[in-house]
Inverse folding.
């Protein structure tokens, strides 16, 4: 029995952004990339994005991690935690 798989739209870009922000390519990211390489309908843009990411790994800009998530490797851990901060637009008034 053949198993059909299809990656989510935008998944490659999300992996690329995550790896660039954290400097880490996680286990989950690698499984996503593996699934993408098996996808018959991979766009040329996605292929180029994957190649850029792999070049970043080869150059040492992005590290390979055995962890599933890169949250623990973030240099800015507060970005991954919920806060009660309220952002006010400069045009709005707060009474």
């Amino acid at each position: 029995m053949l198993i059909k798989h299809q990656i989510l739209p935008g998944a490659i870009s999300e992996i690329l952004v995550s790896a660039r922000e954290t400097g880490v390519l996680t286990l989950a990211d690698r499984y996503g990339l593996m699934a993408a390489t098996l996808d018959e309908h991979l766009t040329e843009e996605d292929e180029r994005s994957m190649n850029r990411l792999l070049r970043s790994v080869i150059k040492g800009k992005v590290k390979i991690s055995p962890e599933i998530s890169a949250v623990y490797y973030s240099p800015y851990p507060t970005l991954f935690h919920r806060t009660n901060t309220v952002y006010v637009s400069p045009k709005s008034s707060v009474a």
User: Anything to note?
Assistant: Residues 11-64 form one domain. DSSP finds three helices and two strands in the chain. Residues 77-89 have pLDDT under 50 and may be disordered.
